Amino acid sequence: MKPRAPQQILDSDFYGLNIQRLLLANNSISELRPLSFWGLGNSLETLDLSYNKLRKVPNEALKLLIKLKTLVLTGNAIQSIGPHELGFMKSLEVLTLDKNPITSIHPSFISGSNNLNLLSLDAIKLDKKLESVAAINANNVKGLSLTRNHLTFLPPRWGVNFTLLTLLNLGHNRLGDVIKMEDCFVGMEKSLKNLDLHSNHFLKNSKRYEHLPCRLHTFSSDSLEGVEATVGTDGSGPEPQQDQEGEEEVTEGSAGARQSRPQPQQD
Asked: Pfam families from the entry (predicted)?
């Protein structure tokens, strides 16, 4: 007999436990009470709530987790992210909100999370709403992933708030040669080192690439015959590198649900 997958976490479920990683994916959780993680505030560093039924960011329950570094909310039903929703999470380093039907993001939702290194917003159907991401107060974010968002255009100077960004993944969108490379990376020129434009609609060997940030260390696009190019800061030519496939970590949770750490997807 399989254990019943929890739909609600009670206030005392984790009290007295010393847990660093808590994987609660695929458990049909629709809401979290303010004291759901009571007792884990001084130990929990990783929380995976992916593929549940949350309709909003459970910020009241998260306020107890003062040492949380990684928060995964992939594949829920979150539609809106309000002001200062996660700004209180001072230790947060990785935030994943992939595959949520998000229609609005308030610019201040991570204001105060000064240690945030990676923000992943893959497959949230941004389409023409990139301006909402551009307005985010994200001066400390070093990695931003926006894959599979049906993006067709990058507004000029859209990334001026991402002044420390070193990694940008725009793969698997619908970007084409209509965008002006010399305008859309303004603000990132000094920091951006890794850029992924794989599986977009650029022409082969497009001259648009001449206007990419000159400090790039790696640049990946199938418009360069499907190889990853390493671009030297001295202007030396690209050197092809073989792509490496990611590995997946799978853990069996206490509720009997199959847990999976999100990995880059391939078409």
From this structure: LRR_1, LRR_8
